[in-house]
Amino acid sequence: MSGQKITTILFDCDNTLVLSEELAFEGCADLINQICQKHGIKLEKPFTGETLIIEFVGQNFRGMLKTLQERYNFTVTPEEEEDYVKQEEDIVIAKIKEKAQPCKGVDAELEKLAASGKYKMAVVSSSALRRVKASIEKVGQDKYFGNDVFSAATSLPKPTSKPDPAIYLHAIKTLGVKAEECITIEDSKSGSLSGSRAGITVVGYNGPYPDDKKDEMKQVLTDAGCKVVMEDWSEFPAILEKIQAGKI
């Protein structure tokens, strides 16, 4: 296997850089339940943050709304959707500003990558740009990325969500790089599919999952196109070296 000259490292945000996924799903569960009630959907049990994570991890709020409408056969108007999206953003951003923490060990790796001067670094997320920026600003990671923060919900002419590769294709075009010179780190099936469909080498990260789910998620991430899966950010330097040497 020939090596890759890596010039650019892309990072998913939620539960890859910042432990924001649980906060976000906790914040939007009540809103999802209100939407279902308004449209006459009889749920067996109301959604909770935990059940939303199980069903919708890696999707943004628009993606969740689309899935719910398909599953329960109801329709929200474009005006309603925009209103719901704004409500959800406000709820989640408030929680992130209050409670968000960085993923374990990631700050040390970001600092080393930045100090090396070898790589462009960018964030590529499904979440709304306001939310992504609030997350990385809260934990002090914004200094590593500048304006190179891309949102499938905000940065594209037509909002979408991973696993659509559109946001990755947009990011690499904007950065002026090719897919083969990039790697990305993802913690979800939808994110891994998005990156791999864009032709980017994907490194999986299952660190934030409970111990009894780590093996299951390692397989999910591998099946979604990840070349390797790490459990801790301390593994990243060796993985990067192996990718560049053609050993992964």
Automatic annotation (TrEMBL):
InterPro entries: CbbY-like, HAD-like_sf, HAD-SF_hydro_IA, HAD_2, HAD_sf, PGP-like_dom2. Signal peptide: none annotated. GO terms for molecular function: phosphatase activity. Gene3D superfamilies: HAD superfamily/HAD-like, Putative phosphatase, domain 2. Pfam families: HAD_2. PANTHER family: CBBY-LIKE PROTEIN, XYLULOSE-1,5-BISPHOSPHATE (XUBP) PHOSPHATASE. This is HAD-like domain-containing protein.
